[in-house]
Amino acid sequence: MPQPEGPVLLTVIGDMPVTNASGRAEFDREMLEDLGMREVETSTIWTDGTQVFAGPPLKAIMDRLQAKGSTLRAVAVNDYAIEIPFSDVSDDTAILAIERNGEPMSVREKGPLWVIYPYDSDQRFRTETYHSRSIWQLDTIEVLP
């Protein structure tokens, strides 16, 4: 996997064979975009009205790294952490949003990375379980066995 050329937005560590640095994989914006952007049009409990989020599917990132785990530990820039079951990767519903309404998200706007589910598409996503997994200001994911 190539080295990032721009600022690193995401670092992935843990149980995965593909890396581009010692014991980790680092992604800049272009690398994340190259994994394929998906749009999710949805409302959230944190924003007003329907928003359009865009970013690579979480599954695309884990597939690129050939990651096989049971849990992802997602960590934000302020060290807030949450565990996301690997089944959320397998069912291919979550994206790692890098844009909101066509614009990159600043840290003030919950960026640069935000785990987003299609909340409006299914009642199961409108629960505290999925809301708690929707970590913003994400910068590190640890793949746990």
From TrEMBL:
Residues 47-118 form the Oxidoreductase molybdopterin-binding domain. It comes from the Bacteria. This is Oxidoreductase molybdopterin-binding domain-containing protein.
